[in-house]
Amino acid sequence: MIREILQFGDPILREKSTEVTEFGKELHELLDDMYETMIDAEGIGLAAPQVGVLKRIVVIDIDDGKIELINPVITAMWGKQFEEEGCLSLVGKKGIVRRPMHVRVKAQNRFGKPVKYHGKELLARAFCHEIDHLNGILYEDKVIEWVEEEEDCE
Ligand code: CO
């Protein structure tokens, strides 16, 4: 089921999410809905607070398979990259953000089992961006320079 994505200005996006402790049907439905919602919106990542659920849950797909992160923690980061970034909660905007080139993440999967990932380039960026959402941080807080979007002719 596609859920509504909260937009910039909604105070929920600024709250800190809490740890997931139940790995049952409700979580699995939420994960499935988040993925469907993200794909429908043509995004590459979505965090639970963006659909109004203040839990530490992230889905990512950079066109390289679905990644589900429950209670993710960044355990290492190194290097740097400066690229354009966008967000499904700030539609129509893009800005340059500094991120690490490499990120290691530990998390749990939908069954509560520990998982580890190493993200490079776009995936490292996605890990950082989505985990920021769980702490009420939006990428606009970190934008070095906004990128002009072409205006639609109406
Ligand atoms: Co976002």
Explain what you see.
With 154 residues, this protein is of the alpha+beta class. 19% of the residues lie in helices and 32% in strands. It has a five-stranded antiparallel β-sheet, sandwiched between helices. The protein has a three-stranded antiparallel β-sheet with strand order 4-5-8. The longest helix has 16 residues, at 25-40. It binds cobalt (II) ion. Cobalt (II) ion (CO) binds at residues 87-89, 129, 133.
What helical percentage do the residues reach? 10-25%
Main sheet: which strands, in order across? Answer: 1-2-3-6-7
Helix vs. strand class: alpha+beta
Distance between the termini: 31 Å
Report the count of strand segments: 8
Q: What do the pLDDT scores average to?
A: 96
Q: Point out poorly predicted stretches.
A: none
Shape: globular
Strand content: 25-35%
The main pleated sheet reads as: 5 strands, antiparallel
Bound molecules: cobalt (II) ion
By DSSP (H or I, 4+ residues per run), the number of helices equals: 2
The run of helices and strands is: HEEEEEEEHE
Q: Rounded to an integer, what's the Rg over CA atoms?
A: 15 Å
Write a concise synopsis of the structure shown.
This protein is an alpha+beta fold and 154 residues long. It has 2 helices and 8 strands; from the N terminus they run αβββββββαβ.
Considering the chains and any ligands shown, give keywords for the structure.
2 helices, binds cobalt (II) ion, five-stranded antiparallel beta sheet, alpha+beta, 154 residues
